[in-house]
Structures are given as structure tokens and as C-alpha cells.
Amino acid sequence: MGLDAKTLLNKLKNEHSLTLDEYRYLLEHRDRESMEIAAGYAKAFQNQYYGNQVYIRGLVEFTNYCRNNCLYCGIRRDNQNCQRYRLNKQEIVDCANDGYDMGFRTIVLQGGEDFAYSDDDICDIIRSIRSAHEDLVVTLSIGERSRESYRRYYDAGARRYLLRHETASPELYAKLHPAELSWEHRMNCLKDLKEIGYQVGAGFMVESPGQTMRDLAMDLKFVEEFKPDMCGIGPFITHQDTPFANEPSGTLETTLFCLSLIRIIYPMVLLPATTALGTIHPRGREMGIMAGANVVMPNLSPASVRKKYALYDNKICTGEEAAECLECLKRRMESIRYRIVTDPGNRAGL
User: Which of 222, 216, 144, 224 shows the shortest CA–CA distance to 178?
Assistant: First the structure.
């Protein structure tokens, strides 16, 4: 019997699992009808576990220095045109305090792999934020560190860690990253984080250079098997100062379809409608929510540095209005009958 998209989507809805070839078939035969069916199933699961609630995370991009040289990234080590910055401890804590006053109960400290901040520094920052606000959840997104470092951050009070795996294909990983970076090491870091007790966020780029539908199917299978607490995906978007400057960017349609599929695969997952989605379409984040996402991450970084944290070209929300547009974001969500909520927003079931 031949494969059929409707049948496969119904199977996925009931079993939350497909074979690699079945995921690949869905991706290769995506059309408007299959997207609508998938979004309908995704929204049903979204409503079952989260209702119409959209969680907010305050993003503090505290350094754009990075020791790595990933081929797709605007803050890669060899980009001489990047205007580098580092926030000091007080500036980071002030951002967290401002976010708390605005209603944020989750703060995401994100940066390049910048070892100018020692483990002691990171732990001190975490403790300072937590001592001021016991109900504020601290999330880290600072790349690959040792298991010992991850343990120290956890002991200091961090409870979530975002580490996008970028791709579940070792071969594609090698094409996107310099030789000193290892797909196996990335996967080991994710396992370490989960074993320590973090709520773990993984994620991948959609339609990155050289990515096949089989590669993308591998990402969906990885989500099914690893079950990250959060999965941040977004379209690949070019940056003019990288080796991939002339490659085509990923599409809105494939990204939205993947969001719906991830919600069906793991209904309880926390699923952001990313800034990248909002960058490639004016209503991209709203469309992401309608496809099954339930998290948005406004920027709390000082206005003076927001434009400098440019992972890709034309990134939205880099001006004075970024975090201050929270009211605007609330209205945007209300326009599609969703509502922003300010509690920490744990994954359903925790």
C-alpha cells in the first residue's frame, strides 16, 4: 500500500511516532491541505495542554563574542565586521530586574561561547538574579560546556538550558560547522543536561544550506526520541558576512509545517514562535502560534547592543521598542485569540 499524507498525519496524531521514511514523505509532499490538517491537529493538542496561553521569556543577549566559527552565524569568530560587546554583571542583573518588573518570570541569558565569563562569573550572576527574585526562572543559552560546568550552573540556581542541536544529521552538521566542532559532542552535551535535571531545549534550522528532506526528517525523529522540554526551530536566514551569504533562506511554509508536526509528535513540548519567523514574515510569530507554537521571547537587552547581536540579516526587534513592545505583542496575540501569560511556564506534565 502506498503512502498517503492524510493517513500518515492521522497515524502521527494517534501514535506520536512515524518512521524516518514516513516523516520524509510528509515533508516532500507538503501542500496546503496537509498543512491545514497538521495545524488543526497541532492546535487541538496545544489547547489540550496549554489552552490559549502563550508564555513569554525575556531574552538577555549579554555577549556577542564567540570562540566558534560556524559557517551560518553572524557572530562567528572570523567576522571582522561584527561590533563586539560584553555586558557586565550589573548590566545583566539590571536587565533581569527590569524584566521582572515588566512581568517576566523566565529570563534567558544568551550569548556566544564566550569564555571571558568564567564559571564563577556565570554562577555569581545566576545567584544574584535568584536572590532578588525567587520566583524568576533562569535559563541559560551559552553553548557547549563541560558536564561539571553544567552541574555548577544548576547548583547555582539555573533550571533550564537551551542548546539547539542544529541538525540531527552528522554529515550536515559537519558541513555547517568548522572541523573542531563535533555532532557527537553536541549530543553528549544535551544528554548531560538532561541527566543533571535541567528542562532542556533543543532545536534546529529549517532548510539550511545542503539540508535534504531526509535530514529534516531526522530532526523530527530526534524530537520524537529525545523529547526536549522545549524545541526552538526557525528558518535558516542568511547573514552577509558569512560563507553562506548567497545561499537561499528557509521558507515560512516548511517552518510552519515543522512546528505543527513537532506539536503532534510531542504534544506537551514548549514550542517558540521565534524571532526568525517574525523576520521572514510580518505576522510570522502569529502564524507560528496558529501552527502550534506557544512561546514568544521578547528582547530585554539594552537598546544600545540589540542590533549588534545579529545572528542573521534584518533581525526584527533590534530597536528601542523591542522589550517595550510587550503591550503590542499582547495585542498581536489577542488578535488571534491567544493571551500572554506571565507565570514561569513549565512544560506540561512537570
Answer: 144
Q: State how far the Cα of 164 lies from the Cα of 203, in Å rounded to an integer.
A: 4
Are 280 and 235 spatial neighbours (Cβ–Cβ below 8 Å)?
A: yes
3-state secondary structure the chain: CCCCHHHHHHHHHHHCCCCHHHHHHHHHCCCHHHHHHHHHHHHHHHHHHHCCEEEECEEEEEECCCCCCCCCCCCCCCCCCCCCCECCHHHHHHHHHHHHHHCCCEEEEEECCCCCCCHHHHHHHHHHHHHHCCCCEEEEECCCCCHHHHHHHHHHCCCEEECCCECCCHHHHHHHCCCCCCHHHHHHHHHHHHHHCCEEEECEEECCCCCCHHHHHHHHHHHHHHCCCEECCEECCCCCCCCCCCCCCCCHHHHHHHHHHHHHHCCCCECECCHHHHHHCCCHHHHHHHCCCCEECCECCCHHHHCCCCCCCCCCCCCCCCCCCHHHHHHHHHHCCCEEECCCCCCCCC
Of 257, 233, 219, nearest to 39 (Cα)? 257
Please tell me the pTM assigned to this model.
0.96
Which tens digits make up the pLDDT trace of 82-134?
999 999 999 999 999 999 998 999 999 999 999 999 999 999 999 999 999 99
Decide: 119 and 151 in contact? Cβ < 8 Å: no
Gap between the Cα atoms of 342 and 99, Å rounded: 11
Radius of gyration of the chain (CA): 19
